[in-house]
What does this fold into?
Amino acid sequence: MSSAPKDISRRHLLTGAAGEAVAVRYLKKAGYQIIQRNYRTRLGEIDVIAREGETLVFVEVKTRSGQGVALPQFAVDAKKQSKITRVALMYLSQKNEMSASCRFDVVAVRKGVKGDQVELIRNAFEMAL
It folds into this structure.
Protein backbone atom coordinates (compact mmCIF):
# COMPACT_ATOMS: atom_id res chain seq x y z
CA MET A 1 0.00 0.00 0.00
CA SER A 2 1.44 3.37 -1.06
CA SER A 3 1.64 6.34 1.29
CA ALA A 4 1.76 8.86 -1.58
CA PRO A 5 -1.72 10.37 -0.97
CA LYS A 6 -0.92 10.88 2.73
CA ASP A 7 2.44 12.44 1.84
CA ILE A 8 0.80 14.78 -0.68
CA SER A 9 -1.91 15.76 1.82
CA ARG A 10 0.63 16.39 4.57
CA ARG A 11 2.83 18.44 2.22
CA HIS A 12 -0.24 20.42 1.13
CA LEU A 13 -1.14 21.20 4.77
CA LEU A 14 2.42 22.23 5.60
CA THR A 15 2.60 24.48 2.53
CA GLY A 16 -0.72 26.07 3.49
CA ALA A 17 0.34 26.66 7.10
CA ALA A 18 3.65 28.18 5.99
CA GLY A 19 1.81 30.42 3.54
CA GLU A 20 -0.60 31.58 6.23
CA ALA A 21 2.31 32.50 8.50
CA VAL A 22 3.88 34.53 5.67
CA ALA A 23 0.53 36.19 4.96
CA VAL A 24 -0.05 37.14 8.61
CA ARG A 25 3.41 38.76 8.86
CA TYR A 26 2.70 40.64 5.63
CA LEU A 27 -0.73 41.82 6.83
CA LYS A 28 0.68 43.02 10.16
CA LYS A 29 3.35 45.04 8.34
CA ALA A 30 0.58 46.49 6.15
CA GLY A 31 -1.22 47.73 9.28
CA TYR A 32 -3.85 45.01 9.73
CA GLN A 33 -4.75 44.00 13.27
CA ILE A 34 -5.13 40.21 13.35
CA ILE A 35 -8.24 39.18 15.28
CA GLN A 36 -8.34 35.45 14.61
CA ARG A 37 -6.66 32.79 12.53
CA ASN A 38 -8.34 29.66 11.21
CA TYR A 39 -11.90 30.49 12.23
CA ARG A 40 -13.75 27.19 11.75
CA THR A 41 -17.45 26.39 11.62
CA ARG A 42 -19.47 23.46 10.33
CA LEU A 43 -19.72 25.41 7.05
CA GLY A 44 -16.00 25.89 6.50
CA GLU A 45 -13.05 28.01 7.52
CA ILE A 46 -11.71 31.52 7.11
CA ASP A 47 -7.93 31.69 7.22
CA VAL A 48 -7.56 35.13 8.82
CA ILE A 49 -9.98 37.65 10.28
CA ALA A 50 -8.47 41.09 10.76
CA ARG A 51 -9.24 44.78 11.06
CA GLU A 52 -7.86 47.48 8.84
CA GLY A 53 -8.99 50.71 10.38
CA GLU A 54 -12.73 50.40 11.01
CA THR A 55 -13.16 47.63 8.42
CA LEU A 56 -13.46 43.98 9.34
CA VAL A 57 -11.52 41.96 6.77
CA PHE A 58 -11.99 38.28 5.98
CA VAL A 59 -8.80 37.02 4.37
CA GLU A 60 -8.36 33.91 2.26
CA VAL A 61 -4.74 32.82 1.89
CA LYS A 62 -3.70 30.79 -1.12
CA THR A 63 -0.21 29.37 -1.32
CA ARG A 64 1.61 27.66 -4.14
CA SER A 65 5.11 26.27 -4.20
CA GLY A 66 7.13 25.82 -7.34
CA GLN A 67 6.77 27.55 -10.65
CA GLY A 68 3.33 26.37 -11.76
CA VAL A 69 1.50 28.53 -14.25
CA ALA A 70 -1.66 29.00 -12.18
CA LEU A 71 -1.55 31.95 -9.82
CA PRO A 72 -2.72 31.07 -6.30
CA GLN A 73 -5.52 33.66 -6.24
CA PHE A 74 -7.28 31.94 -9.14
CA ALA A 75 -8.15 29.10 -6.74
CA VAL A 76 -10.66 31.42 -5.04
CA ASP A 77 -13.46 30.64 -7.48
CA ALA A 78 -17.20 31.36 -7.17
CA LYS A 79 -17.79 28.22 -5.08
CA LYS A 80 -15.01 29.15 -2.64
CA GLN A 81 -16.26 32.76 -2.48
CA SER A 82 -19.73 31.53 -1.59
CA LYS A 83 -18.37 29.29 1.17
CA ILE A 84 -16.23 32.11 2.62
CA THR A 85 -19.25 34.45 2.52
CA ARG A 86 -21.43 31.98 4.45
CA VAL A 87 -18.73 31.48 7.09
CA ALA A 88 -18.23 35.26 7.36
CA LEU A 89 -21.96 35.78 7.88
CA MET A 90 -21.88 33.18 10.64
CA TYR A 91 -18.95 35.01 12.27
CA LEU A 92 -20.73 38.38 12.01
CA SER A 93 -23.86 36.89 13.54
CA GLN A 94 -21.99 35.18 16.40
CA LYS A 95 -20.06 38.34 17.23
CA ASN A 96 -23.14 40.57 16.89
CA GLU A 97 -21.41 42.58 14.16
CA MET A 98 -23.95 42.28 11.35
CA SER A 99 -23.78 46.04 10.74
CA ALA A 100 -19.97 46.11 10.59
CA SER A 101 -18.22 47.39 7.50
CA CYS A 102 -16.44 44.39 6.02
CA ARG A 103 -14.67 43.16 2.92
CA PHE A 104 -12.96 40.09 1.50
CA ASP A 105 -9.25 40.11 0.69
CA VAL A 106 -7.05 37.42 -0.80
CA VAL A 107 -3.36 37.00 -0.05
CA ALA A 108 -1.53 35.01 -2.71
CA VAL A 109 1.78 33.51 -1.60
CA ARG A 110 4.18 31.93 -4.07
CA LYS A 111 7.00 30.08 -2.37
CA GLY A 112 10.17 29.83 -4.38
CA VAL A 113 13.90 29.29 -4.14
CA LYS A 114 14.53 33.03 -4.17
CA GLY A 115 12.06 33.64 -1.35
CA ASP A 116 8.36 34.23 -1.01
CA GLN A 117 6.34 36.48 -3.30
CA VAL A 118 3.27 37.94 -1.64
CA GLU A 119 0.40 39.72 -3.32
CA LEU A 120 -2.44 41.32 -1.37
CA ILE A 121 -5.68 41.72 -3.29
CA ARG A 122 -7.94 44.06 -1.35
CA ASN A 123 -11.67 43.77 -1.99
CA ALA A 124 -11.00 40.62 -4.01
CA PHE A 125 -14.71 39.78 -4.23
CA GLU A 126 -18.12 40.88 -3.03
CA MET A 127 -20.38 38.83 -0.78
CA ALA A 128 -21.46 35.85 -2.86
CA LEU A 129 -24.23 33.50 -1.75
Observations:
- The mean pLDDT is 85.
- Residues 4-125 form a domain with the Trna Endonuclease; Chain: A, domain 1 fold (CATH 3.40.1350.10).
- The beta strands are 33-41, 44-52, 55-65, 102-112, 115-125.
- The first strand starts at residue 33 and ends at 41.
